[in-house]
Amino acid sequence: QVKLVESGGGSVQAGGSLTLSCSASGYTYCTAISRSWYRQAAEKERELVSSIVRGGSRNYADSVKGRFTMSQDNAKNTVYLQMNSLKPEDTAMYYCHIHVRCASGDILGYWGQGTQVTVSS
């Protein structure tokens, strides 16, 4: 069973920084094909923040470009989201997501439990 564990959320003032981590485990017979961060603010839909696809290509939402950086440590099966110059509108629950392709040919997606980020003005 694939498991994603996020950490690093918290409360900061505007202009501050946080780094989120997401470690993945349990996909021995599968290969990760993308890792992503999503966020969901109160009463809003979940939105894609950033992603890394196999091969290393990265994408960012326009709202975070230049402020957030996603990276990965393949040896630890962990991805990170470095968030700088945080704004109150970055306040949300942040979720880690992984897509894996398994030996069976199935492509499956899994979510972490989420970590709260609160930015005060």
Please explain how this structure is put together:
The chain is an all-beta fold. The chain contains no helices and 11 strands. The strands form 2 sheets. Strands 2, 4, 5, 6, 9, 10 and 11 form a 7-stranded mixed sheet that branches. The protein has a 4-stranded antiparallel sheet with strand order 1-3-8-7, with no helix packed on it. Strand 9 and strand 10 (107-111) form a beta hairpin.
Features:
single chain, 121 residues, mainly beta, seven-stranded mixed beta sheet, four-stranded antiparallel beta sheet
Shape: elongated
Topology as a string of helices (H) and strands (E) = EEEEEEEEEEE
By secondary-structure content and strand pairing, the structural class works out as: mainly beta
The share of residues in helices is under 10%
Give a brief description.
This protein is mainly beta and 121 residues long. It is built from no helices and eleven strands.
Q: What is the topology?
A:
Blueprint: E1 3-7, E2 10-13, E3 18-25, E4 30-40, E5 47-53, E6 58-60, E7 68-73, E8 78-83, E9 92-102, E10 107-111, E11 115-120
Parallel strand pairs: 2-11
Antiparallel strand pairs: 1-3, 3-8, 4-5, 4-9, 5-6, 7-8, 9-10, 9-11
